[in-house]
Design brief:
This protein has about 160 residues and is an all-alpha fold. The protein has one domain. Helices cover about 90% and strands about 0% of the residues. Helix 1 runs parallel beside helix 5.
Length: about 160
């Protein structure tokens, strides 16, 4: 029974931190009127830098400890191939449908697919972090929450532009 309670607690913490950051980012993105491209570029750079740091300093070393180098590299390569395939698929559909190369629409769709796909490994990372230690789980949850704020800003700004 205690193990079920621990799994439920970990699930609720992951759910909270995963949705809280994106929600706060979405609220900020919708309420900030006409941000410059420099601000949006900074926000995206911050999010990608934070996630790169999490990957390089927390997730990859942990993956090497839990598994082998080959299995970890296979997961990385599959993720890269999946995103390249999504980009190629979306590019062909957007170019065929609109008749031009609408890079903003294409980027938004690929980022949306990428965000949807990467929420699953984010949850796995938080759960695995809690499995290793409470400190690692909480630090990953907080870092992912901070990482999700700029994502929410970008997504809300992009979809707001496309909708109107």
């Amino acid at each position: 029974m205690e193990q079920i309670e621990q799994i439920l607690k970990t699930t609720l913490i992951g759910l909270f931190f995963g949705t809280f950051g994106t929600t706060i980012g979405g609220i900020i993105g919708v309420n900030v009127k006409n941000p410059s491209n420099k601000i949006l570029g900074f926000i995206l750079s911050f999010a990608s830098g934070l996630m790169t740091a999490i990957i390089c300093f927390d997730l990859i070393p942990e993956a090497f400890e839990l598994s082998s180098l080959y299995v970890s590299m296979l997961g990385i390569v599959i993720g890269i191939i999946l995103m390249i395939a999504c980009d190629l698929f979306v590019t062909s559909k957007v170019n065929n449908k609109t008749g031009n190369k609408n890079s903003l629409l294409r980027t938004g769709i690929v980022v949306g697919i990428g965000l949807a796909l990467h929420n699953f490994p984010e949850g796995l990372a938080i759960g695995s972090g809690f499995g290793a230690s409470v400190t690692l789980g909480l630090s990953l949850a907080i870092a992912i929450c901070l990482h999700d704020v700029p994502e929410g800003i970008f997504q809300s700004r992009h979809w707001w532009k496309c909708a109107w």
